[in-house]
Amino acid sequence: MGGGGSTTRRVTFEADENENITVVKGVRLSDSVIDRMKEPSSPSGRPQAQHRSASGTVNDEELKKRIAEELALERARRDSEAQKRRLQQEQMHVRDEFGKLLERERVSSNEHLTRAILRERAATEEERQKAQRFARQLEEKDRELRKHDAYYKEQLARLEER
């Protein structure tokens, strides 16, 4: 805290019965500072705890201000965490809805595919039946042609005999 541009902070502390120093939350002090705080602050031998009572109102106001700041920070952190939880819940909801949508699309595409396959099978079966019908007609025509051929051969043979 030495240099020309540094700001000065007041730290309120007390010494307990074991000469341990209690410091305001969030402030870190080096061992040398703690040792200096344990020493009397003036030649009269007053300990630091007596010095605190002289400037207690200023330090209490600063402490109240710090506590208010910490409370505000804690509220902001809780609000942030609540917002984060809401966001996660919304994300889960969106994922669920997206999953449902994908499932409906999959079912719909499967139904469409199934209908297309059934149409193709029906068309294939119709073509197969047509082919069988044409094959029977062809066989019938072939038999008829053979009959005619045999008849004409027989007629030709009779004509040749005559």
In short:
The protein has 162 residues and is mainly α. Helix content is 75%, strand content 4%. It has a domain at 62-161.
Could you describe the 3D structure shown?
The structure is a single chain. This protein has 162 residues and is mainly α. The chain has a domain at 62-161. It is built from three helices and two strands; from the N terminus they run ββααα. The chain has a two-stranded antiparallel sheet with strand order 1-2.
Shape: rod-shaped
- The end-to-end distance, rounded to whole angstroms, is 148 Å
- How large is the count of helical segments? 3
Stretches with pLDDT under 50, minimum 5 residues: 42-55
Side by side, the strands of the main sheet go: 1-2
β-sheet strand percentage: under 5%
Structural class per helix/strand content? Answer: mainly alpha
Helix content: over 70%
- Rounded to an integer in angstroms, the radius of gyration calculated over CA atoms is 52 Å
Write the element-wise H/E pattern from the N-terminal end onward: EEHHH
Largest sheet: 2 strands, antiparallel
- What is the total tally of β strands? 2
